[in-house]
Design a protein that fits this description.
heterodimer; A: 116 residues; mainly beta; 4-stranded antiparallel β-sheet; 11 strands; B: 113 residues; 6-stranded mixed β-sheet; 12 strands; 0% helix
Chain lengths: 116, 113
């Protein structure tokens, strides 16, 4: 089974702190994603990466940055956390292109961040 | 504008009863359609997907969904619900060659014993 592992399930941070959320996948997927999930809003894409060192902004990139130095790892960074970034963060990955399994997202278990 | 609508925020059914969760979409291109399930405190798990071909697709855990192009719908069904099906269900739309997936806001299913 594809495994997408998010290193922290629960985090509590203070306003202004720098926060790192780590995501690792073990199936050689090219694409990796960071979503934010809030009640009543569904999933909203923060950033997407289709290759090492490549990234594209999603729908809500403000206040976030990402890093992809290795194919299997995709990090979400909150440079200065704010209370409105309290949320569930979901990492996902997928194959790229036309091969079998492409276009199907595999999700991690999520990281619930509380900013006080 | 592209969108996915799940009109029911909450649904409650009795164990053993049938279930239908609604999903309507607005999408310019030929859509890829997905249903995901999220158990409390967990990530999303793929239940089933439709890319092309037979419009009735079977998924895991006894779920099925039917793609109706004329109605822009992709409703999820299960003939007999089990207590373990209590979860939140998300419909999503994408298309070939894009990373852009649009998710509905979810339907939370409660199962009464």
């Amino acid at each position: 089974d594809v495994k997408v592992t998010q290193s922290s399930r629960y985090l509590v941070k203070r306003t202004g702190e720098k926060v790192f959320l780590e995501c690792v996948q073990d199936m050689d997927h090219e694409n990796m994603f960071w979503y934010r999930q809030d009640p009543g809003l569904g999933l909203r894409l923060i950033y997407f990466s289709y290759d090492v060192k490549m990234k594209e902004k999603g729908d809500i990139p403000e206040g976030y940055s990402v890093s992809r130095e290795k194919k299997e790892r995709f990090s979400l960074i909150l440079e200065s956390a704010s209370t409105n970034q309290t949320s569930m963060y979901l990492c996902a990955s997928s194959f790229r292109g036309a091969r079998a399994g492409a276009n199907v997202l595999t999700f991690g278990a999520g990281s619930r961040l509380t900013v006080l | 504008a592209q969108s996915v609508t799940q009109p029911d925020i909450h649904i409650t059914v009795s164990e053993g009863a049938s279930l239908e969760l609604r999903c309507n979409y607005s999408y310019g291109a030929t859509p890829y359609l997905f249903w995901y399930v999220q158990s409390p405190g967990q990530g999303l798990q793929l239940l089933l997907k439709y890319f092309s071909g037979d419009t009735l697709v079977q998924g895991i855990k006894g779920f099925e969904a039917e793609f109706k192009r004329s109605q822009s719908s992709f409703n999820l069904r299960k003939p007999s619900v089990h207590w373990s099906d209590a979860a939140e269900y998300f419909c999503a739309v994408g298309t070939s060659g894009t990373y852009k997936y649009i998710f509905g806001t979810g339907t939370r299913l409660k199962v009464l014993a």
